[in-house]
Amino acid sequence: MGYPEKWLRGAIEAATNCRTFPVQAPENAVTPYVVYQRTATSRERTLTNNAFVPIASFSVWIYSDTYAAGKELSERVRVAVDNFKGEADGVTIERVFLADEADGDLVDFAGEGKPTYTVALQFEIRFREV
How far apart are the C-alpha atoms of 3 and 128, rounded to whole Å? Predict the structure, then answer.
């Protein structure tokens, strides 16, 4: 059975050519990079069973050395992921939509002496479980 995380990671990496990590990047990760995480899953129920078409919510964070670079990468992710539907990596994705997009806080990694810029994207992915 496929799952949307595999597709999402591949789509982000293909669009940005950046290393992409689930949940958290390693301490030694070099910018730019992307982190994604499933933040919620909603499963509809019928009177007889699970409808098997959950909607998964994902947060995607882009880390970059400049504000402009972060915006460029976030736009690439948006174009690659938003409105996708089809078969990919063993999962049927019925629809994807961008739910929110915002500038994130500056991050000051210890010892670097310069800020890292962040952009946060929120996606909703409806997919088939079986």
Answer: 9
3-state SS of the chain: helix, strand, coil percent to 5?
20, 45, 35
pLDDT at 53: 83
Over residues 81-101, the pLDDT tens digits come to: 999 999 987 889 999 999 999
Residue whose pair of structure tokens reads 């964070």 in the numeric block: 61
| H or E element that contains 38 | strand 33-42
Any idea where the domains of the chain sit in the sequence? 4-128
Q: To the nearest whole percent, how much of the chain has pLDDT over 90?
A: 72
How far is 56 from 22, CA to CA, in rounded Å? 15
The CATH architecture annotation of domain 4-128 reads 2-Layer Sandwich (3.30)
124 with 97: CB under 8 angstroms?
yes
